[in-house]
Amino acid sequence: MSDTWRYVGTRLLHAIPVVFGVTVATFLLLHLIPGDPARQLVGLHASPAAVATVNRRLGLDGSLLSQFRDFLSRLLHGDTGTSFFYGVSTRSLIVSRLPVTAALVALAALFCVVITLPLAIIAAVQKDRLTDHAIRVIPLVGLGMPAFWIGILFILIFSVKLPWFPVGGWGISYSDHLRALILPALTAALGIIPLLIRSLRAGALDVFNADFIATARAKGLREGRVLFLHVTRNALIPTVALLGLNIAYLIGSTVIVERVFDLNGLGSLLLEAVGNRDFPVVEGVTLVFAVAVVLVNLGTDLVTAQLDPRIRLR
Amino acid sequence: MKLPAATPSAQPIAESAGRHRSIARRAFGSRTFVAGLCIVGCITMLAVLAPVISRYGPNQQNPFHTLEGPSAAHWLGTDDLGRDVWSRVLYAGRTDLFIGFAAVLFPLIFGTLLGIMVGYFGGRFDTFTMRLVDVIIAFPFFVLVIALVFIIGPGIRGIFIAIALTDWVVYTRIIRSQTLVVRELDWVAAARAGGLSHARVLRRHILPNTIPQAIVYVMSDIVYVLLAVVTLGYLGLGIQPPTPDWGSMISEGQSFLTTNLWLSTIPGVPIVLIGLGLSLCADGLTDVLRPP
Amino acid sequence: MKPPALELRELAVEFGQGPGRFRAVEDVSVSVADGGTLGLVGESGCGKSITLRAVMGLLPSGAQVASGRLLAGGSELPLAGKGVRAARRRRVAMVFQDPSSGLNPVMRVGAQVAEAPRTVLGLSARRARDRALELLAMCGVPDPKRRAGAFPHQLSGGTRQRVMIAIALSSEPRILLCDEPTTALDVTIQAQILRLLQDLRERMGLTIVFVTHNLAVVGELCDELAVMYAGRVVETGATRQVLDRPRHPYTLGLLRSAVDLDAPVSEPQPIPGVLPDPLHRPAGCAFHPRCWLATPDCTVTDVRLEDVGAGRQSACLNHQHLADATRHG
């Protein structure tokens, strides 16, 4: 048991410098790249004094180092700035919108595993037969499908033509929320499922042909039990690991999915802020997204370790 | 950043460029590759010939014929401003495909060269670069691109810069790992012992052995970049109107989903087809490059 | 007289399709008496593992049984088709070669040993667990209770192989097929495992078929031997007799090429030449290109196993020559 805690501790320790790096990167990204957010805010013909005022308010005056010092000290106090547009702290905005995005990502991740794993195993069992070829078509066709287009098709089929799901929005009750999330989560998941299937098919084949599966069969176990217990349980490990590698992309795609389905999450907050030239919010949300990716990656590492005793036990 | 699936391993080569010619020949022997190439070729051809084959200009409005369905006069109907959808799809192809193919060039060249350098020389330069790569990969791709476009401004210029700043990392990673392998091969050591300068070794031995991997990845990368372009277009942050773009066409059509569904659905089809074609090319090339 | 525990008749196994099709195993017939031990020996690639897997019904994909019959205790066991595994349940079990890949890495070993008793024998969870501990103890696993809670990668190679044997025994078979179970182990552990198998055989009255390329191993464990070459059986007989007085040049070659620690110091002599390509077998006897006894008729006659007296069989046309030579040498 202490082995597991040691592993957790090590992973946490590794995550810290990455979080720091990401923070620095966000800062540099938004303060260093040429482009004048202040001027864009007040307009091209504004007076230098007006621009200077805005710069001061945005914290964009002063040397880069002093800017960074301010940025860091504010952050350590949990202050990510005040929204230009709304006038409230960006933190309160982020906190209010976070649950939607978090639920969306969680459901999408679940869909990824639940859809990819069975398909990969079926492709392995039916290797080179029709089902296998059909499954292998999915990555070919799916890789080029834009997420927003898939979302619109879903809306067309399942909300417009068939009244199964709401066209958009969040709803009121918990069950409303769930129904509202299904199509968006599926859309986001389909953004990476083709990639997952392509890689996992080989992994599932390895498990299927492994020696210990022959041992299980030799014991006299029925094939169903062999597949369900032994093959699936082992193929789950590379599935989760692969999901972890691609989860950054999944999290980023919530920006688009929330726009398509009109959900009030962090992604749509980012887009609104971009539209409103709301610099502090853009800064805050970008940072939150990046840190979230690091934390979620940590999470998937821990889940993988839980699934694979070879990692967490010596 | 979407990470690529398994990359093919390279083989040690003879020095001449003859090997590249033979790869090209074998590539054309692969049915998958040829099929993919045909698909990509057809669509690109249609896009290039847009001014010739379309019957209307992309921005030619006709207020008397708005939101019409497909007909003899307008093969794919008209949008809410009376513009011919078929012509707009073709012209949008010109813009989107051009950007898609062009925007990968910088990441390809820069990422490959950087990968070779850090892989070959190693040291602190290598450590620093890979930390940078890790940080960039930690950012969700679209969040990063949107933030960049926010700073730089929307439009074609913003897209090019955003892609240039973010897309090179995967090339560097792939090329670097391949360089690490090639660097240890016996004939490279022999070349160095024979007195070849670093530059020559890099140019004539390392580079030819690592480029194939980059070429295979670039096929998938064009798809990702194209998706980024049209997604930005959908969000209103990409190619600005009135220049037609598949993404913004889909976005404009979304309000008419219940009445004129093709406005939002049709422009996605060429994107999927290009993706299919390029995936087939990549798969075909991977098979060809796999060691026998 | 009791029917043999296992009787294989004219097994043929094919690989591949179309122009690449070949027979890895041809006309193999062996039998084992109840409670006996048969050693199946030969070089890598001679088809002995494939034969064993065919008997177990676990051929790899791409391979299929072309012909043959299998009888266990007189009753027929299907070699292919739907009922293959069901027929072997509780009758035949197999111990695989590599214990590091033969055990499920994410399942505790105790659970793996208890799985067959639970699902195949229908024992309750607690009784299955007890049975698993019993089996582990019987197979010489030290401190079975603690080991049962471990994962395979936490155990040593020798212990893992004992677990594999325990798993094989867990479905209460009468016949144990062993596919080179000691090849992946250290020499000292090898001896322990062999002793274990012998012990188990005596205690449980098992019938064992033991596949190996190591002649020293068969000398210890097996009553009878069948020597295979290029997919066919070339010689059979009681172990002592075959090893002391081989009746096939290939067997003699094998003996000469092995290092015998007990014999006076001598050079091991490898058999010149290489195994024939299964797609292009030589005409006549497959061994004739490498055989010093070869006569012109060896290159054309389709040799088969024949009785040569005293319960022995040989597939060599010139076996008598060998018999005379070794009697005097």
Could you characterize what this model shows?
- The complex is a heterotrimer of chains A (314), B (292) and C (329).
- Chain A has 13 helices and no strands.
- Chain A has helices at residues 2-32, 37-42, 48-58, 64-76, 90-125, 130-142, 147-161, 174-208, 211-218, 223-261, 266-275, 279-307, 309-312.
- The mean pLDDT of chain A is 83.
- The two termini of chain B are 31 Å apart.
- Chain C has 329 residues and is of the alpha/beta class.
- In chain C, 34% of the residues lie in helices and 22% in strands.
- In chain C, a hairpin with a 2-residue loop joins β4 (63-72) and β5.
- The radius of gyration of chain C is 21 Å and the shape is globular.
- Chains in contact: A-B, A-C.
- Chains A and B meet through α1, α6, α7, α8 and α10 of A and α6, α7, α11, α12 and α14 of B.
Task: List the defining traits of the structure above.
heterotrimer, B: 292 residues, mainly alpha, 14 helices, disordered N terminus, C: 329 residues, alpha/beta, 8-stranded mixed sheet, 4-stranded antiparallel sheet, 12 helices, 12 strands, 34% helix, 22% strand, globular
Secondary-structure topology with pairs:
The complex is a heterotrimer of chains A (314), B (292) and C (329).
Chain A: H1 2-32, H2 37-42, H3 48-58, H4 64-76, H5 90-125, H6 130-142, H7 147-161, H8 174-208, H9 211-218, H10 223-261, H11 266-275, H12 279-307, H13 309-312
Helix pairs in contact in A: 1-12, 5-6, 5-8, 5-10, 5-12, 6-8, 7-8, 7-10, 8-10, 10-11, 10-12, 11-12
Chain B: H1 18-29, H2 31-48, H3 50-53, H4 85-103, H5 105-121, H6 123-138, H7 141-152, H8 156-166, H9 168-183, H10 186-193, H11 198-235, H12 246-253, H13 262-265, H14 268-289
Chain C: E1 6-15, E2 22-32, E3 37-41, H1 48-56, E4 63-72, E5 75-77, H2 84-88, E6 92-95, H3 99-102, H4 109-119, H5 125-138, H6 144-148, H7 157-169, E7 175-179, H8 187-204, E8 207-212, H9 215-221, E9 224-229, E10 232-238, H10 239-244, H11 249-257, E11 306-309, E12 312-314, H12 319-328
Parallel strand pairs in C: 3-8, 3-9, 6-7, 7-8
Antiparallel strand pairs in C: 1-2, 1-4, 4-5, 9-10, 10-12, 11-12
Helix pairs in contact in C: 4-5, 4-7, 5-7
